[in-house]
Amino acid sequence: MSRIPENLKYATSHEWLSVEAEAGTVGITDHAQAELTDIVFVELPEVGRQLVAGDNCAVVESVKSASEIYCPADGEVLEVNPALTDNPGLVNDDPYGDGWFFKIKIGAPSESLLDAAGYASEIGES
Amino acid sequence: MVDFEHWEMPVKYSGIVEEHHTVRKAAGLFDISHMGEIWINGLRAADFLNWVLTNDVSALETGQAQYSLMCNEVGGVLDDLYVYRIGAETFLLMVNASRTGRDMLWLEEKLEEFGQSNRVVLKNVSQDYGAVALQGRASEKILSDAIGGNGLIKVDRPSDLQKNEIEAFALGDRDVYVARTGYTGEDGFEVIAPAECIGDVWNRLLTAGESEGLKPCGLGARDTLRLEMGYPLYGHELSEQITPLEAGLGYFVKLGKGEFVGSVELANQKEKKPNRKCVAFRLTDKAPPPRAEYTIWGRDTVWKTGDLNMIGKVTSGNQSPSLGIGIGLALVQSSFAGMGTKLEVNIRNRNVPAEVVKKPFYKPKD
Fold first, then answer.
1. N or C end of chain B: smaller count of CB under 10 Å?
2. How far is CA B140 from the centre of its chain?
3. Cβ separation B286–A66 shorter than 8 A
4. Residues B179, B161 contacting (CB under 8 angstroms)
5. Quick check: B287 and A38 CB within 8 A?
6. CA B319 to chain centroid
7. Which of these, A57, A54, A58, A45, lies nearest to A73 by C-alpha position?
8. Are the C-beta atoms of residues B33 and B132 closer than 8 Å to each other?
């Protein structure tokens, strides 16, 4: 069973969004990192880029494959996680903490985001 | 699990990178039962094989093995394989799972042409045999603990086998073949056994290897390990449209042994020099790993205009777990194949710098 924190919102494409006031943090779920296996490179969006929910905004490369990451909310990229450049394995080690991808100034989160229970059921772990 | 040519195969057990490092530091066990096995027997078996394969089968003594290629008339590679000489008139071919059917049809067709069908017998036994690969420096000890007894062909114990040698050992009332071969660059063995006892072989090796840090490994690590050695994978570096000379496997093409299928075209290509070559390259900057089908670009060197042209494609690529950088094999125009040549790899519409390097990328430590 993978970890699915209660306080986050989830996209069916396996990204999580944490909403704090006007900013949101985006990463990929524990389930996603386990499926991708050893992550060796993360390509992050440029700071200042305007994203629309569902935009292809990052790429995660594992020894297995390259996978696209979709933005779970509308908004402008405020900051990207600099630690992932030298240590992409943080995504495997701590997907909801040190392995976060980027922060956005939230316009509107995608309405189709799931809560923890909904995501658990989506990945067959409810 | 993934479907690989209708074989259900694990990509990983504990994790690709972890399995990779385990093989480099201790030992790993791979299920390679998907590989095809073909028996070739008879008075003219050696002559037939020497005509249908590029390497020199006559150089093999009983109990020895060699890597070889099977080419079509124009020198394109039908399959790459291992030839094991089990006896004076008995050979075992280990071929790629995806090519077994094609290989058998080709061999039967060629045998008809060879005209000695009463003196050569072909038999596809892929469904009757399973195989495992035990790879890594701890392999000798593990194998010796798991499979004892005296060899039935030449050597006494598995540990007496030299690289590229094969021996039969009794396991219960069945014979299993143990060869000191592999696809990882590390010392190791491949065990080929009747399907009904391959599970027993797997379990014995896992048990014997427990104290040595042996781990089961999947297709993912098999691929990263072979890539670090620059070994070709059929369907990537090799195909019916690619010759062994283009693939950089000229060493296994013995043009001096006499005529063989494809030899005229290959001799011709060798003389004129192939206009494309398979090279090893590494990324020189931190960048996403290269992948098969990415395009390779080079600066014009003939007119020195500095123009950037597409000069080839990546055939295999990944992040090297041992080196921590992006590495790959690519088929490029021959003028860009020299050591140290600067290349660019197009990764998602961005060109990243790379350079041609020597194989292997990684040298296993003794």
1. C
2. 21
3. no
4. yes
5. no
6. 20
7. A54
8. yes
Reported ipTM: 0.84
- B339 contacts B350 by C-beta, under 8 angstroms: no
pLDDT recorded at residue B207? 97
Read off the DSSP letter of residue B360. Answer: P
What does the alpha-carbon distance between residue B132 and residue B208 come to, in Å, rounded to a whole number? 15
Whole-number Å distance between alpha carbons of B279 and A68: 29
The percent of residues in chain B predicted with pLDDT above 70, rounded, is 98
Please tell me the distance from the alpha carbon of residue B205 to that of residue B202, in angstroms, as a whole number.
5
Cβ–Cβ pairs < 8 A, chains A and B: 39
Residue in A41, A59, A64 nearest the CB of B11: A64
DSSP reduced 3-state for A93:
helix
SS3 B312: strand
> CA B4, CA A53: separation in Å to the nearest integer?
36
What are the beta bridge partners of residue B342? B355
Of A43, A59, A64, the CB nearest to B16: A64
Cβ-defined contact of B17 to A38 (cutoff 8 Å): yes
Taking only the tens place, the pLDDT of each residue in B134-186 is: 999 999 999 999 997 778 888 888 899 999 999 999 988 889 999 999 999 99
Residue type, A91: V
Whether the link from the prior residue into B232 is cis, omega within 30° of 0, is: no
Token pair of A108, please? Answer: 């509107």
Residue in B131, B127, B180 with CA at minimum distance from that of residue B151: B180
Six-digit token string for B164: 């590229």
CB-based contact B287 A41, cutoff 8 Å: yes
Q: How far apart are CA B14 and CA B99, in angstroms?
A: 29
The answer to whether B224 contacts A64, with C-beta atoms less than 8 Å apart, is no
Fill in the DSSP letter of residue B290: P
**Beta pairing, strands B342-347 & B326-333:** unpaired
What pTM was estimated for this model as a whole? 0.93
Which residues are A24's β-sheet partners?
A: A19, A104
Nearest Cα residue in chain A from B219: A64
Angle at alpha carbon of residue B191, lines to B188 and B194, rounded to 5°: 175
Q: How far apart are CA B360 and CA B185, in angstroms?
A: 9
CA atoms within 13 A on the CB side of A5: 15
Residue of B60, B30, B53 lying closest to B192 (CA atoms) = B30
End-to-end CA distance of chain A: 9
Residue type, B323: L
Question: Which of helix, strand or coil describes residue B220?
Answer: helix
Whole-angstrom Cα distance, residue B87 to residue B63?
7
Q: What backbone phi and psi angles, to 5 degrees, belong to A40? A: -115, -10
What three-state secondary structure class fits B246?
Answer: coil
Give CA–CA dist B316/B161, Å, rounded.
32
